[in-house]
DNA sequence: ATCCCGAGGG
DNA sequence: CCCTCTGGAT
């Protein structure tokens, strides 16, 4: 298992690679950010950014989206995928914002998770980015990167990955670490063809060294 | 554990 | 063709 000290060292090097990492979803209001993050589940932010301008032009506020016809919303977000579930979720979530949260995005992770389509990961992202609530949202990239670096064990659940990261990374760095690790995972430590030969973290990475060995063995 | 689910990359 | 994408609900 990678120590806390080496985990921070790994994070430092990732921040050199991605100095100004931040979310890449487009939005204009807190409400729109919440919706965009809900829509980004199992989808690329590129595909979300392609659909949301049309959606937010028609339904820019919780009031508008809460009253929107299901068919119309489905059609506008169809290209994102998982569109039936997501259309229902964002309409219902908008209705709940009006009915239960005075039309505002709730300020706590616990309250946000009452909204349909909002789980631990989405709530962490939104609370962190909108309200500065210290949190580390573990998505597919953080999960993969953490396991390859052995920051946590291979079998760790999302909650366990989150706990390991929170333990090993200073609290004031949690939110930035999330964005940095996303970009590192998205563009460098990719799921399929990770750029291990060109990785500044290779000496810290158990998986990377294993992958490199296999390549050498294959060429042999 | 399984379903949802289109777009893009390899 | 197959895999992956800032997951969540059942």
Automatic annotation (TrEMBL):
Q: Which UniProt keywords apply?
A: 4Fe-4S, DNA damage, DNA repair, DNA-binding, Endonuclease, Glycosidase, Hydrolase, Iron, Iron-sulfur, Lyase, Metal-binding, Nuclease
Alphabetized InterPro entries for the sequence: DNA_glycosylase, Endonuclease-III-like_CS2, Endonuclease3_FeS-loop_motif, Endouclease-III_FeS-bd_BS, HhH-GPD_domain, HhH_base_excis_C, HhH_motif, Nth
- Specify the domain of life of the species encoding this protein: Bacteria
Q: Which GO terms describe its molecular function?
A: 4 iron, 4 sulfur cluster binding; class I DNA-(apurinic or apyrimidinic site) endonuclease activity; DNA binding; DNA N-glycosylase activity; metal ion binding
Give the family this protein belongs to, as stated in its UniProt record: Belongs to the Nth/MutY family.
Protein purpose: DNA repair enzyme that has both DNA N-glycosylase activity and AP-lyase activity. The DNA N-glycosylase activity releases various damaged pyrimidines from DNA by cleaving the N-glycosidic bond, leaving an AP (apurinic/apyrimidinic) site. The AP-lyase activity cleaves the phosphodiester bond 3' to the AP site by a beta-elimination, leaving a 3'-terminal unsaturated sugar and a product with a terminal 5'-phosphate.
The record, for HAMAP family, names: Nth (MF_00942)
Q: What is this protein called?
A: Endonuclease III
Gene source species = Vagococcus carniphilus
Lineage runs: Bacteria, Bacillati, Bacillota, Bacilli, Lactobacillales
